[in-house]
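Revision sheet: structure tokens.
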Amino acid sequence: MLKCFQDWCPGCHSSGFPTLKAFADEFWNHPDVAIAGIQTVFEGFNSNTLKDVRKLQLKYDLPITMGHDAGDPAGDHRPQTMIKYLTGGTPWIILIDPEGQVVFNDFHVDTERLIAYVGERYRNAATAA
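Predicted:
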């Protein structure tokens, strides 16, 4: 699961980080689930800094890998993460299956359904093994 955010994004704080926190609390130590948050800066380059990533990780108590894709203020502004995954802004969520296929790539997600979907997928995989 890859969660894209920006520090100054109100939607990231009202829904994005709560979803990420709930998902991380459920799966951060699951051996088959990888979680990362990445600040994808496409605007507000002076306000969405690398320092903010650690600040947000501590604020939301996220025991996951966090990154910073700074974008290009001199070019088309979009960071590589946004270009490669065709994201449309923040907060954004991308689910990638074990075969590397993107199975969800969108702005809004229902947190409970997301957790149930991933949980069911890995319960079924563990039962089949």
